[in-house]
Amino acid sequence: HARSAIAFDLLRRTLELSGYEVMLVRNFTDIDDKIINKALKENKSIQELSSIYIESYTRDLNALNVKQPSLEPKASEYLDAMVHMIETLLEKNFAYRVSNGDIYLDTSKDKDYGSLSMHNSSVEFSRIGLVQEKRLEQDFVLWKSYKGDNDVGFDSPLGKGRPGWHIECSSMVFETLALANAPYQIDIHAGGADLLFPHHENEACQTRCAFGV
Predict the structure, then answer these.
(1) H or E stretch covering 177
(2) CA–CA distance from 32 to each of 88, 168, 169, 193 (Å)?
(3) Helix (H) / strand (E) containing 207
(4) How far apart are CA 213 and CA 209, in angstroms?
(5) Which label site among 40, 86, 121, 170 has the fewest CB atoms less than 10 Å from its CB?
(6) How far apart are CA 209 and CA 183, in angstroms?
(7) Reading across the β-sheet that carries 103-105, which strands appear in turn?
(8) CA–CA separation, 105 and 198 (whole Å)
(9) pLDDT tens track, the chain, 213 positions
């Protein structure tokens, strides 16, 4: 984590020294399966648990002289934006709901799916796993319906539940970086190479489908 933060900090400083004004957004996906499971085990809220790690991470980056970002949105603060983006995908027929209430992105509707990571066969998508009622193995979850006491859910027009990991990032980018005269604006999307697939691939897919970019 420190390596990636330092790399992005060096890029930012280089751009600023070259005369560019840089707005750097570093988000925290604090609605996550691992966080939820640990929070339930320790009888804490996800916000309470994630804040411990966010504070520790920030202290470490300060010690490394990494500059503070312009904004640090948290997924838990942008639920309305995520719901709106999922509603847009449903309205445009890029997403579908299965019987248990979960909502998936229909990757067959995106002709460019796989172009970022160059994953182009069903074998390569096996890490996502096959879920009953999914149309394609690579279809990914946008909204997870509330499953009961061992889960966390938020009331929304989509029903009680929580967003999938990938939709959190795209929604926060839209809310923090979109310009008044453009539906979606970002110059550089940085992230670890280990997230290229499926995370960045799925981010790119749902963004194309929702915003036409």
Answers:
(1) helix 165-177
(2) 23, 10, 12, 20
(3) helix 201-211
(4) 8
(5) 121
(6) 13
(7) 95-97, 103-105, 140-145, 161-163
(8) 13
(9) 789 999 999 999 999 999 999 999 999 999 998 999 999 999 999 999 999 999 999 999 999 999 999 999 999 999 999 999 999 999 999 999 999 999 999 999 999 999 999 875 454 554 455 577 899 989 999 999 999 888 899 999 999 999 999 999 999 998 888 765 665 678 899 888 889 999 999 999 999 999 887
Dist CA 100 CA 97 (whole Å): 8
User: φ, ψ for residue 108 (rounded to 5)?
Assistant: -65, -20
Rounded Cα distance, 138 and 117, in Å: 13
Identify the structural domains of the chain with CATH numbers, from first to last.
1-76 (3.40.50.620), 78-212 (3.40.50.620)
